[in-house]
Design a protein that fits this description.
It is built from 14 helices and 12 strands. By secondary structure, the chain is an alpha/beta fold. The chain folds into 2 domains: about 150 residues, Response regulator (Rossmann fold), CATH 3.40.50.2300; about 170 residues, Response regulator (Rossmann fold), CATH 3.40.50.2300. β1, α3 and β2 form a beta-alpha-beta unit. The structure holds beta-D-galactopyranose. The site of beta-D-galactopyranose has 12 residues, from loops.
């Protein structure tokens, strides 16, 4: 008897599953499809903690608040995995995709496939060169680089200085824009001399540490300031400076306002970071995704030129903020970083000195 019920249950489950599979293949014309579903592909977990710590939860919240189904996945640094996730999302009937590409070629291939199936795409944070995204949502990334340049100049003063650059991944259009912005500021300071500049493949901290150590050896330690394109790379530089007992003497920049970056700032080992309120970015992208689902024209504030695709992409470009020891508090007050995470152990006193209180 019990066996009978169990097999009946198994059958019912199988039937339900196959029904779901049918419903998910994009052929259904039911209410769900009309409501739309968003697929999000984040790039990796290694280049910056931002993707899993900031972007994922904020995007999740934004779609939930709008009552829109979302599927958020991470390509873990693999373009192949990126493609597989995209294929699965397209099969499951997503109506809009939000992607942060690992490189323009693989991201553009995904966008063309989506387009062929009538699925709209949004470039989230990184512009896909030669892509077909309907919108691009990001920060003003040249300005991000300019904040780094201004920040380094503020920490260095105008004294004669040798500067090195550790740029982001050469496959990330943002990295090009960050470097451009930093050069816009620093190249004008006649007392500064660029003595080395290297892109860091995949934004990997380990590679950054090796590259910086090579620069340090080649320059016989005569480096006075470092443009590091994000907090992960900045921390790699700080680790090599610590090894050489020079941490704190040499200003280093960063980006993303991560817990580690902010702690390096509180320690006096990192000059500044660039804070990009991810919530604003996630909310702006979610808003555009929703307008695409509703078949409405989304609100944009700018255009970004894609020099490969030779087109201007309707965009939302937000404003980055330079963060130094005296305004680390702002990141905590915004809720981007929790005081409890930042002010652990030895950082409790440093937080207090920076006016940050742990509840
Ligand atoms: C950039 C992004 C940065 C940083 C970096 C590494 O494209 O704008 O915020 O996280 O990638 O992931």
């Amino acid at each position: 008897m019990r066996k009978g019920i169990l097999s009946l249950m198994a059958l019912t489950t199988a039937a339900a599953l196959s029904l779901t599979a049918c419903g998910d293949d994009g052929n259904d014309s039911g209410g769900d499809a009309a409501k739309g579903k968003v697929g999000v592909i984040l790039p990796d977990t290694a280049s910056s903690p931002r993707w899993e710590n900031f972007d994922r939860p904020y995007l999740e919240q934004a779609f939930k608040a709008a009552g829109i189904d979302s599927d958020i996945q991470n390509a873990e640094g693999s373009a192949q995995r990126f493609q597989t996730i995209a294929d699965q999302m397209l099969t499951s009937g997503v109506t809009v995709m939000l992607i942060t590409g690992l490189d323009s070629n693989s991201a553009a291939a995904v966008q063309r496939k989506a387009q062929a199936q009538g699925v709209k795409t949004i470039d989230y944070d990184r512009l896909t060169l030669g892509g077909v995204a309907d919108y691009y949502v990001s920060f003003d990334n040249v300005k991000v680089g300019e904040e780094m340049g201004k920040g380094l100049q503020k920490c260095l003063g105008d004294k004669a200085s040798n500067i090195v650059y550790l740029n982001g991944s050469p496959t990330d259009n943002n990295a090009t824009l960050f470097a451009k912005g930093a050069h816009n500021i620093l190249d004008k300071v006649t007392n500064y001399k660029k003595v080395a500049e290297q892109p860091v493949p995949d934004w990997e901290a380990e590679k950054a540490a090796t590259l910086f150590e090579q620069m340090w050896t080649e320059q016989h330690g005569k480096i006075d300031g470092v443009v590091a394109a994000n907090d992960n790379l900045g921390n790699a530089v700080v680790s090599i400076l610590k090894k050489n007992k020079r941490a704190g003497d040499i200003p280093v920049t960063g980006q993303d306002a991560t817990v580690q970056g902010l702690q390096n700032i509180l320690d006096g080992n990192q000059c500044m970071t660039v804070y990009k309120p991810t919530k604003q970015e996630a909310d702006a992208a979610a808003k555009l995704a929703i307008s695409l689902i509703k078949g409405e024209k989304g609100e944009t504030t700018a255009t970004e030129n894609d020099p490969v695709g030779k087109r201007d992409v309707p965009s939302v470009l937000l404003n980055p903020i330079g963060v130094f020891k005296d305004n680390v508090k702002q990141v905590v007050d915004d809720g981007s970083v929790k005081a409890a995470d930042l002010c652990k152990g030895a950082y409790a006193a440093k937080c207090e000195a920076a006016g940050i209180t742990v509840q």
